[in-house]
Amino acid sequence: MLTLCFLLLLGADWLTDGGNPQRTSWQKDEKILNKDNVKNLKIVWKLQLDNEPKEMHSLFPPLITGNIAIVAGTGDNIYAIDVRTAKILWKKHFEYPTPKRRGRPTDPLCPAGLTATPVIQNGIIYALAGDGEIHSLKVADGEDVAPPFQFGYPYGKSYALNIWNDVLFTTTAQGCAGNPNQMWSVSLKDPTHKVMTYNPRSGGLWGRTGAAIDEDGVAWAPTGDGRYDPATQTYGNGLIGAKVIGNELKLQDYYIPKNWAWLQSRDLDMQVTPAIFKYKGRELMVAASKECRVYLLDTKAAGGDDHQTPLDRTPLICNEEVNFASAGIWGGMASWEDARGTRWILTPFWGPVHSDFKVPVSYGPVLHGAIVAFKLEEKNGKYKLVPAWMSRDMDQAEPPAIANGVVFAFGSGENTEQAYPDRGLDDNSPERIHDSTHAVFYALDAETGKELYSSGNQIKSFVHFGGLSVANGRVYLGTFDSILYCFGLEAK
Amino acid sequence: MLPLLLLLLLAQPARPPLRERAANGDPDAQFTLGKNYEAGRGGLKKDYAQAATWYLKSAEQGNAYAEASLGILYRAGKGVPRDEVQAEMWFLISAERCAEGDRDTILEMRDSVAAHLTPRQLAEARRLAHEWKPK
């Protein structure tokens, strides 16, 4: 018990979506959970919050600092929760006049409210309210430490905030409320809070955890369907890297798959937040698309001289039928390094595994989605993503997190259909909510993919745009019904 | 300047609706219409048979995306009988015509189908592809 208290005092944090600015979702400081004890995971507590879901969105991935979980809800709420007692320490609700423009009611793509996971730096929460204003709140009591300032457009559907050298980043997508799809940044040091943007003239930049930031401060984000025409600075279906230089956000580099036109023609856009990591002294990143393959890129020269040649790309993992809505890789990537120095890459995917995809270790047929792990190998300067294992079937596998040799994953249970045989495209929240089931949370052996724990039917609702956070022997997941689940080793 | 621009804009004939362009033989419009039927988009009900019909019209004019999309439908048996020889044939045709950047993708699908074919079936697919001519 003393040891446990000591470890909790030491504390591991999760201060931003994806765990770090590089979006690896790797909790390096986890000391409690391990592959031997996660079979004993339980719901330590669950907490019903009064957040109002908007369309299919509800709670975003919690941020953890010390013993406090900061949870944002799409009803424009921020909650601070004592993770030891599951008591709400404070709650902040952002009030603002109803914006004049909003997305189509019932449109799952454009909820009218807060949509960006906040970020914490130096004990201050930076939260982007649904009206586009940044609020700076003290973790301790939720009080404003600075006046709010405008960053995005009202109801503009901003994605998870990231922060680097006092500069906040976000991305926008789906043109919600008529707003542009682009990368956004603002310096906290700038008293005028000049908003700096870069617009790749593409579809939405809808990687789930926004932009990932490399060691040089370049923010990388995927671009949705669109054309590629460097002459007109049009970078659809790719990955752009932009950096704040002076008081402007400028394009530094980009990667566009050679088959971007095919991706565009079949709506298979790149829309997965990359994960950035060091490997043998070189900074690399992995990205993916709905086409269902993973790309390995160098952050110093993404795609090489022609911006179209990755260090490696995997064969198709899924999406044999070229489905635009319910198959492929969605959300984000993950990466970790084991004690032997092996670099692992993890990707979730939706839908059945591709019949040609070969992986040495798997656990039964995969029809609805799974996690695939690759080992990164290098020989004579050539890099290769080598399939290592594929998890059990998961109902719409979402981006995983890794801690201490354990992969934490979940199937969202979300109905992702956007079109119906009897009436075509009809992407509406009520029907998708009705047809969704419930999330299932899993712990897997990170080296073999073997299931070590499953929450079974304990979670009652589905997850849309939620995600996992891991710190200090606890794993957190918020669901559509605004319940925050805390998994750990000891029951309350 | 602005009135001149407005005048020029008004002078432009309005773009005909997708279906009209497709019916008039525009291969790009035919491909898009096929895709809308396949995905159930653009106000259309999902109808794989209609998707195959419009893809075929477009493919017959040499649209490589429509040709590959036909291959996908034949492989899955959507809107057409499942027929891997036909799928292979369409991927072979598409790979010949597609843009350089898309070739690897089409070849990947072609090879994936070919792996399931007997030598005789493969030869048949190649013969059909070789003899096929756009209309």
Mind explaining what this structure looks like?
The complex is a heterodimer of chains A (492) and B (135). Chain A is 4% helix and 38% strand. Chain A is mostly beta strands and 492 residues long. Chain A has a single domain, classed as 8 Propeller (Methanol Dehydrogenase, Chain A), CATH 2.140.10. In chain A, the strands form 11 sheets. Chain A has a 5-stranded mixed β-sheet with strand order 1-31-32-35-36, with no helix packed on it. In chain A, strands 2-39-38-37 form a 4-stranded antiparallel β-sheet, with no helix packed on it. Chain A is globular, with a radius of gyration of 21 Å. The two termini of chain A are 15 Å apart. Chain B has one domain: Tetratricopeptide repeat domain (Serine Threonine Protein Phosphatase 5, Tetratricopeptide repeat). By secondary structure, chain B is an all-alpha fold. Classes of the chains: A mainly beta (492), B mainly alpha (135). Chain A binds chain B through residues 257-262, 265-267, 291, 308, 315-316, 320-322, 324-325, 354-356, 419-425, and chain B through 31, 35-36, 39-47, 65, 68-69, 72, 75-76, 78, 98-102, 104-106, 108, 112, 115.
Keywords:
heterodimer; A: Methanol Dehydrogenase, Chain A; five-stranded mixed β-sheet; four-stranded antiparallel β-sheet; 39 strands; 38% strand; B: 135 residues; mainly alpha; 8 helices; 0% strand; globular
Structural class of chain A: mainly beta
Estimate what percentage of residues of chain B fall within beta strands. Answer: under 5%
Give me the Rg of chain B, rounded: 18 Å
Query: Pairing-aware structural class of the strands and helices of chain B?
Result: mainly alpha
The fourth-level CATH homologous superfamily of chain B is: Tetratricopeptide repeat domain
**Major protein interface:** A-B, 28 and 30 residues
**Which CATH class of chain A applies here?**
Mainly Beta
Helix content of chain B: over 70%
Task: Supply the CATH architecture of chain A.
Answer: 8 Propeller
CATH topology title of chain A: Methanol Dehydrogenase, Chain A
**Low-confidence residue ranges of chain B:** none
Q: How many domains is the backbone of chain B divided into?
A: 1
Average of per-residue pLDDT values of chain B: 91
